[in-house]
Amino acid sequence: MTDVLVVGAHPDDLELHFGGIAAKAAADGLVVVGLDLTKGERATRGTAEIRAREAEASAKCLGLAERVQAGLPDTGVSHLDAAQVKRVVEIVRRVRPRWVLAPHPEDAHPDHREGGRLLERALYFAHVGGHPAEGGRHRAHGLLFDWPDAGTRAGGFAPQFTTSGLVVDISAHFEAKRRALECYGSQFGPGKGAEPSGAQTRLNRPTFLASVEARARRWGELVGVDYGEALVFAGAVAYTEPLTGLFGAHGLGQGANA
User: Fold this and answer.
1) Backbone angles phi and psi of 89, in degrees to 5
2) In CATH, what number is assigned to the domain containing residue 216?
3) Which of 34, 163, 208, 254 could pair with 67 as two cysteines, CB 3.0-4.6 Å apart?
4) What is the pLDDT of residues 104-150, one digit of tens each?
5) In the predicted model, what is the mean pLDDT of the chain?
6) Is residue 189 exposed (0-12), middle (13-18) or buried (19+ Cβ within 10 Å)?
7) Residues 104, 68: contact at Cβ < 8 Å?
8) 3-state SS class at 182
């Protein structure tokens, strides 16, 4: 049984969206598994082989128990592709996660938003006995998405998801997130020249990783901590444990603006 399955469309996405939560969960003794939907083979910089090595190194920084590669087509992730749904259902049935963190289904990147929708679909069919995917039925406790920023595509198409959410304090684990991201030299390293391996992209601008830190600081500021990562969900989430875990001294806390 996996406690948390952390999903990214490409190697480096789970680190960008949920790296601090993954590191915190692993440090807390939870079993955390990463899932990359694609190998990132169509990226402007880096090859699938290079990115696989980077992902392996990053997984060690975060403390992942396993990192799974779904092998779906980069630039071609689709929640309506039956073969892709079957592949992800089989992964879900094998790793059996309690909770799943996935890209927002209205993310600006087509692979990201299709990835979020694909996980919604796969998690539903994972507990349908007649689905043709291999493995025993499994029902995850819940699916949580990356909280989109105001001004993003998600903010325009799903404004209800920009108003409230859950911010996780990752202050003690932001350095692990930073180290994990630094493993991706092919994506975030300085680019020189016109060759694909050294092309200039949005990701290797000197300010990009600084913007990742600024985002984490912004989420943290909302709840009065140094760094945060934020989650949203659609529908109901069940809480069945003693209420000391929810309302007690170490339960949910108010935001700094409350």
Assistant:
1) -60, -45
2) 3.40.50.10320
3) 34
4) 999 999 999 999 999 999 999 999 999 999 999 999 999 999 998 75
5) 91
6) middle
7) no
8) helix
> Judging by beta carbons within 10 Å of its beta carbon (0-12, 13-18, 19+), is residue 236 exposed, middle or buried?
exposed
pLDDT value at residue 53: 97
Q: Which two tokens stand for residue 107?
A: 């993310």
The answer to whether residue 254 is domain-embedded is: no
pLDDT value, residue 156: 67
The CA distance from 232 to 146, in Å, is: 6
Domain with 230, as residue range(s), is 2-247
Residue 252 placed within a domain: no
User: Distance between CA atoms of 96 and 137, rounded to whole angstroms?
Assistant: 9
What gap in Å lies between CA 134 and CA 41, rounded to an integer? 27
Residues 196-219 as b/e (b if ≥16 CB within 10 A, e otherwise) read eeeeeeebbeeeebeebeebbeeb
CA distance 236 to 151: 26
What percentage of the chain reaches a pLDDT higher than 90?
A: 76
Contact, 256 vs 221, CB < 8 A? yes
Report residue 42 as tokens: 């169509």
Note whether 11 and 53 are within 8 A (CB).
no
Give 158's Cβ-side CA count (13 Å radius).
18
* Any domain includes 79: yes
How many domains does the chain fold into?
Answer: 1
Helix, coil or strand: residue 37: strand
Direct distance between the N- and C-terminal alpha carbons of the chain, in angstroms, rounded to an integer? 37
Task: Tell me whether residue 255 is in a domain.
Answer: no
In sequence order, which residues have a C-beta less than 8 Å from that of residue 250 and are 6 or more positions away? none
Say whether pLDDT at 162 is over 50.
yes
